[in-house]
Amino acid sequence: MTRNLLTIKQLADKHSAFSQAALRNYIFKSKPIVTSKGTIPGNGFDACMVRVGRKILIDESAFFSWIDRINGKEAA
User: Fold this and answer.
1) Over 90: is that where the pLDDT of 74 sits?
2) Cβ distance 58 to 11 under 8 Å?
3) How far apart are CA 63 and CA 27, in angstroms?
4) pLDDT (tens digit per residue) in 2-60
5) By three-state DSSP, how is residue 46 classified?
């Protein structure tokens, strides 16, 4: 099975409902952050990402599975 990996710009261009800024926000909040007041949980978006050096690629099918999961719907 081949994975459809897209850059942030490519995904935003292909699916205009998601802006580049929104995708970068998902990436920023993907892992838990430890602060002086405790831990802020991550959103789980890191399961959709592949990092190659500094480049971030997003697995398109994993992205939509993540969208379904955070909305309480399991992908069939």
Assistant:
1) no
2) yes
3) 12
4) 789 999 999 999 999 999 999 999 999 999 999 999 999 999 999 999 999 999 999 99
5) helix
| Boundaries of every domain in the chain | 5-70
Give the dihedral sign, CA 68/23/44/65: positive
Q: What are 45's two structure tokens?
A: 């978006």
Instruction: Find all residues with CB under 8 Å of 72, minimum gap 6, and list them.
Output: none
pLDDT of 73 higher than 90: no
Q: Is 71 exposed, middle or buried (0-12, 13-18, 19+ CB in 10 A)?
A: exposed
